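tool_call: predict_structure(chain=1)
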Amino acid sequence: MSSIIQGAIVVKDLIQKLVEAWGPSGYEHHVRALIQAEVQPFVDEMKVDALGNLICRVGSGPKKIMVAAHMDEIGIMVTFREPKSGYLRFASLGGLIQTTLHGNRVRFEDGTVGVVAAPDAFGASRTTAPDLDSFYIDVTDGSTADAITPGCPAVFWRPMESRGSRLISKSMDDRVGCAVAIETMRRLQKQTPHSLYFVFTVQEEVGIRGARPAAFSVEPDLAVALDVCPTGDEIKGERNAVKLGGGAAIKLQDTGVIVPPAVRDWMVNRAEADKIPYQFELIKAGTTDAAGIQVARAGVPSGCISIPCRYVHTTSETVDLADVEACVGLLTGLLSHAVSI
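tool_result:
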């Protein structure tokens, strides 16, 4: 077996462990424990801050570079239990797409699986998504048990599937970014001229709440966020040049960050020097941890390496292993060489 194929299998297995872990915004502890076990051999120092961010230092060079990937996934939180039916009402944890909710499954921390339903599914709800307040979750089992109560969070549930080099799962956003960071740490083997701070952040999906205090603590000179970005290669898709299989997506702009030209050129020059396939990303909706990091303290030059992903914020987020490898290769190259920014 070639080293390339073997490496792809390792990364695929890592991604599967991460995406099938349970970790909605504010409840990332299971994912954090998994990542801690994975990165322990490759770090010089590791700590968990007050908000739950996992901060891993690699190297002790003069320039501090922060690499951020968020651990949380979109989910729901129970707000009310209907007294007669036992059905659960809920609020969103992150950006739900209401047209994808009916018939979906959610999983609570204790393993209970519920089904999300819309009223009048074969009537008005068949063509028009109702308000979020109209949906409910069925966790009934024929008894009067009420183990799931208001305040219980859940994630949308579906195991990972593969189709050739394509991987399909819930929570690729942003567990695949976490996988890119972990694999980069493994390849670096602590060899870097910098002080690298790999930060696995919390609560990105509900307002970039983890990255801001983490950046304030680390005080980086430069930062790179790792996240997914939507593609424009679906039928009648968004006017977006990013495509699955097109390589690492180097962000130029989103709703929260305009990447400084020096950061953009740093990434492009390394990709071209190392013959790594890349494409440019500009999106009109959404942002990443880079938006929070860039305004920490006196400001931090920040960019983002994005993994192209179809069907973002659904249970069938789809990525290509070739793009994942391109992102790992680009990040490893960037962090292995001197930086003049």
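agent: The mean pLDDT is 93. Proceeding to next step.
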